[in-house]
Structures are given as structure tokens and as C-alpha cells.
Specification:
single chain; alpha/beta; 3-stranded antiparallel β-sheet; 44% helix
């Protein structure tokens, strides 16, 4: 049986990192909406051209375009044994469309990474990025108090979208647009919520156990 997974959670919950770990563990591709958007634009597909025009105008890609790009990606052969979607769906409308795309496929496993807002604000506002090599240093690192990168010696800086006021605005948008997915999926037998405020290795184990508890044990 194919293992089809959606992983979602608020900004800073670690869903991208955890989705990559789980994808490697289960031998299925991780599909990031950011990646497939860029691929569609670079391939100059019809949807990619529409997406580029929207992005160049500084606007958000519509549900219609995003659903179309995801539909095309899920038609590729490397997802026959399953996939992990990271960043899609973002809205209930997108979730409903995903259900239609997957009508004749194996059931969807949905994993929510739940982290309190104040933990996310603290986590993101203390995060630093190396201006030279791009390494990310989190608050749990021993080197976070240092002004330089432990890997290359470059300057550690704060990204503009990690400022506290920006983080709080991102969380507001998440609660308005994406948090309703919890209500949408809570009635699904394969919905699981995982405490994402724990250490990354503990979260990874909890996610793996949650997936196994649904019967999705592809390895």
C-alpha cells in the first residue's frame, strides 16, 4: 500500500526538516510546494508561466494554480509508493481539491505538528543564519550566542522574516488560513497531531509512531 502523507504546522514548527527525515526513512519523495513551483516556472509549463506572472507581480499564487501544479506533480511515477506533501494544502479549499486528486489512491495520512505560539516566537526570533554559507543556527545550539558561524566563520544574522513582529504576523495568517485544516481533517481516521515543541529527534520518533499507528508502515 502506498504511503501518502500530508504534514502541516505553523511557521517554525520544523515540518520541512521532519518531512525530509520521514521521507528518507520511508523511501518516498518529499514534495515541497516551493520546490515544485520553482520547477514549474523553470520548465515553463502553462501553469508555471501563470505562476511566474503572479509571483513577479508580488502576489500570492491562487488555489487554482497551486492545485494544478500539485496535480501534475502527483501524476509522476516516483510517487507510486507514496509521497509526503510539505506546504500543501494551506487552505480548506486546497484540502478539498487534494481529496479529489487522491480519490482512487490509497488513504491519506495527515500529521499536524502542534507548537504553541509563544514557543514559535521564541524559537524563530532567536534563530540566526550565516551570511556566508547559509547555515541556520537555532537557539538550542551552543553556538547561538556566538556572532560567527561555527562552520565557516561567517557573520550570523537575523533574517527579516524572523523578527518578532513579522513572526507574529505570519502566525496570525497561519491561524486564519491554515489552522482550520485541523477541523477539516480531525474527522479522518488517519489524522494525527504530534507535539512539535520537543527536541527534533523526539519529534521524529513521535511522527514515525503516529504514521505507524495509522497502518502506514512503508519502509
Amino acid at each position: 500500500m502506498a504511503l501518502n502523507i500530508v504534514m502541516f504546522g505553523p511557521p517554525g514548527a520544523g515540518k520541512g526538516t521532519q518531512a525530509s527525515r520521514l521521507a528518507t526513512e520511508r523511501g518516498i519523495p518529499k514534495i515541497s510546494t516551493g520546490d515544485i513551483l520553482r520547477e514549474a516556472v523553470q520548465a515553463w509549463t502553462a501553469l508555471g508561466q501563470r505562476a511566474k506572472a503572479v509571483l513577479d507581480a508580488g502576489e500570492l499564487v491562487s488555489d487554482e494554480i497551486m492545485v494544478g501544479i500539485v496535480r501534475q506533480r502527483l501524476a509522476q511515477g516516483d510517487v507510486d509508493n507514496g509521497f509526503i506533501l510539505d506546504g500543501f494544502p494551506r487552505t480548506v479549499t486546497q484540502a478539498s481539491e487534494l481529496d479529489r486528486i487522491l480519490e482512487r489512491r490509497d488513504p491519506l495520512v495527515v500529521v499536524e505538528l502542534a507548537v504553541p505560539d509563544e514557543e514559535l516566537v521564541s524559537r524563530l526570533s532567536q534563530r540566526r543564519v550565516c551570511a556566508s554559507c547559509g547555515a541556520i543556527v537555532g537557539r538550542q545550539s551552543d553556538t547561538v550566542a556566538s556572532p560567527t558561524c561555527g562552520s565557516c566563520g561567517g557573520e550570523l544574522v537575523q533574517r527579516s522574516d524572523d523578527r518578532e513582529d513579522v513572526v507574529r504576523d505570519r502566525l496570525r495568517v497561519y491561524h486564519e488560513q491554515t489552522a482550520p485544516l485541523v477541523d477539516f481533517y480531525s474527522g479522518h481516521a488517519r489524522f494525527r497531531s504530534v507535539d512539535g515543541s520537543q527536541l527534533p529527534d523526539i519529534v521524529a520518533s513521535a511522527i514515525s509512531e503516529a504514521v505507524d499507528s495509522t497502518g502506514g508502515a512503508t519502509r
